[in-house]
Design goal:
It is a single chain. Helices cover 73% and strands 3% of the residues. Strand 1 (127-130) and strand 2 form a beta hairpin. Helix 10 (236-256) runs antiparallel to helix 11. It is mostly helical. The protein is globular. The model has no long low-confidence stretch (mean pLDDT 91).
């Protein structure tokens, strides 16, 4: 049981970071960013390139992926999403745009890196073995601690910085925030860039554990949407809760249901459908309408 809990917490930290970026973009712009998983994959490839090809330290590669994804996110918001949101009368336009961006990023990644799995050398050797009750490689412990640190920094930034307060105001009431002098275009771009940055950070961290390949973008997006549905769309605390809940469910499923074959996600999806039928707004979200 202790091993299941530790594995669930480790997965939860990674998933929470992915969900935070997606829910931040949704809360600010009411946009479902279907390309979020591809941004995660792009971050992993940036870290791989920095560490393996340019022989830079791992942490430098992770922060480079964050910087690259911040620029990519800002450009996507300014030159793609912003004109569509202002000119289109249908919300479906942003969904189609996001899907198009996802396919475009997949094509770029395929052209640059191919379909081969990529990874970086282990950042820390050795395994923690606590009386054979908890067994966890040191590199996973380090990645988990870094992810927790990033979640804490993000929460503090959103809570106490001027930019964070402005973005929270926009998420709560865009009209009132605009009347109070908040620049919607500016903070929407910052929010989208920050969401993309979080995706890049997770990709950069996990390339040291699971590696990265072209096919990981779609599943990452699906998991991110699952997490914000569990916690509540547009709610930061809900995204964190959804990440840890999904991580724990996956850990339990992969352990308990292992003898029944690969049905873990079948059970998770079925449980999610039942949950949403009972509480469609998620754990912490407000009813729609």
């Amino acid at each position: 049981m202790e091993q299941i809990i530790v594995n669930g917490l480790y997965l939860g930290t990674q998933y929470a970071l992915i969900a935070l970026g997606l829910t931040l973009i949704f809360s600010l712009m009411n946009v479902l960013n279907f390309a979020h998983g591809q941004m995660y994959v792009l971050g992993g490839f940036v870290t791989y390139t920095a560490v393996v090809q340019f022989q830079l330290p791992f942490l430098v590669g992770v922060f480079l992926s964050a910087a690259v994804l911040a620029v990519v996110g800002a450009l996507i918001e300014k030159f793609l999403f912003r004109p569509v949101i202002k000119k289109s009368l249908r919300e479906e336009s942003t969904m189609l745009l996001a899907a198009g961006i996802a396919f475009f990023l997949d094509a770029i990644l395929l052209l640059l890196f191919g379909e081969k799995q990529r990874g970086v050398p282990k950042i820390i050797d050795g395994v923690l073995n606590w009386d054979f009750i908890i067994v966890m490689p040191y590199d996973r412990i380090a990645i988990g601690c870094l992810a927790i640190l990033m979640i804490v920094v993000f929460i503090l930034y959103m809570q106490y910085s001027r930019t964070g307060r402005a973005m929270r105001a926009l998420a709560q009431d865009k009209v009132a925030a605009t009347l109070m002098g908040v620049n919607v275009d500016r903070y929407s771009m910052i929010g989208f860039a920050l969401g993309a940055t979080l995706a890049g950070l997770v990709g950069g961290l996990l390339v040291a554990i699971t590696g990265i390949n072209l096919g990981m973008g779609g599943p990452a997006s699906i998991k991110a949407f699952m997490m914000i549905m569990i916690g509540g769309a547009g709610v930061i605390s809900g995204a964190i809760a959804g990440g840890f809940i999904l991580g724990m469910m996956e850990s339990v499923g992969l352990t308990v249901l292992a003898e029944y074959g690969d049905i873990t996600y079948l059970v998770i999806f079925a449980s999610l459908m039942v949950f949403l039928a009972i509480r469609p707004q998620g754990l912490m979200g407000k009813p729609w309408g």
